[in-house]
Amino acid sequence: MFFTDLLFPKHCLGCSILGAYICPKCQRQLHYLDRNTCFYCKKASLYSLTHPICLKNFNITGLTAIFSYNNLLKKIIKNIKYRLVTEAWKDLTRIIEPEAVRQIGFYKRISKDFFLQPIPLSKRKIRERGFNQAFLITRFFQAFLDFPISDFLIRVKETLPQAELKTKKDRYNNLRGAFKINPVNKSKVIGSKIILVDDVVTTGSTVREAAKVLKKAGAAKVYVLALAKG
Ligand SMILES: [Zn+2]
Ligand SMILES: [Zn+2]
């Protein structure tokens, strides 16, 4: 036991039991994504790549994740976002099965020159939280994928959580214009292959908007890799 454990005892983020951020019982409630599907038609697809017939101009070429999103992951991710950052995150990465991570290795076979691009937070949010959780997740994936982390996107608009918005129009307006290309790296985006990284993808509207901005700026391919997919 570490000294810090005495000062701040660990409680399970799922069931509150003392001893670990994710107790063994709750660990069994984490479900790995076991079905590979096309993001657009939801039918089966190898490595969750978008079927050629479903792939339009500004579309995502493939979208995959480690976990399937459920209530427990919702709690864990929320906690990682707002307080327990490093410790809870370390516990989560420790219990991810190597096999689940190995599966995302197909990216290395697709191309050797991908960039990993975390979904950016606005400057204000970074100041509030002190870090971007998508960046932490990107670093975790980078340990396996070995691609450089890019700084192609900036977030210029605060957005509300998409789930809080009722109509399709509100959701569209919420994200429209949220991202811009980082002017410093404008030329590097042209012809690039990018893997966007985010914590959770549910409706996919955030990554869709980010992919559109990157593709309009000349990116050749945009994929998405998330910790969890809903
Ligand atoms: Zn528990
Ligand atoms: Zn499809």
Give an overview of the whole structure.
The structure is a single chain. The chain is 37% helix and 17% strand. It is an alpha/beta fold. It has a single domain, classed as 3-Layer(aba) Sandwich (Rossmann fold), CATH 3.40.50. A five-stranded mixed β-sheet has the order 1-2-7-6-3, with helices on both faces. Helix 3 runs antiparallel to helix 4. The longest helix has 13 residues. Bound molecules: zinc ion (2 copies). The site of one zinc ion (ZN) has 7 residues, from loops.
Write the layout of secondary structure elements.
Layout: H1 3-7, H2 24-27, E1 31-32, E2 62-68, H3 71-82, H4 85-95, H5 98-102, H6 106-110, E3 114-118, H7 123-129, H8 133-145, E4 153-155, H9 168-175, E5 179-181, H10 186-189, E6 193-201, H11 205-216, E7 221-229
Parallel strand pairs: 2-7, 3-6, 6-7
Antiparallel strand pairs: 1-2, 4-5
Helix pairs in contact: 3-4
This protein binds zinc ion (2 copies).
Residues 12, 14-15, 17, 23, 25-26 line the site of one zinc ion.
Pfam families: Pribosyltran
Family: Belongs to the ComF/GntX family.
Organism: Candidatus Roizmanbacteria bacterium CG11_big_fil_rev_8_21_14_0_20_35_14
CATH class, named Alpha Beta
Sheet-strand content, in percent, reads 15-25%
**How do the strands line up in the largest sheet?**
1-2-7-6-3
Helix content: 25-40%
User: What is the distance, rounded to the nearest whole angstrom, between the alpha carbons of the first and last residues?
Assistant: 35 Å
Q: The CATH topology, please?
A: Rossmann fold
Please, how many helices? 11
**Ligand inventory:** zinc ion
CATH architecture: 3-Layer(aba) Sandwich
Order of helices and strands: HHEEHHHHEHHEHEHEHE
Helix vs. strand class: alpha/beta
Shape: globular
**Low-confidence parts lasting 5 or more residues at pLDDT below 50?**
none
Count of the separate structural domains: 1
- What is the average per-residue confidence, as pLDDT, rounded to a whole number? 89
Largest sheet: 5 strands, mixed
Q: Say how many strands there are.
A: 7
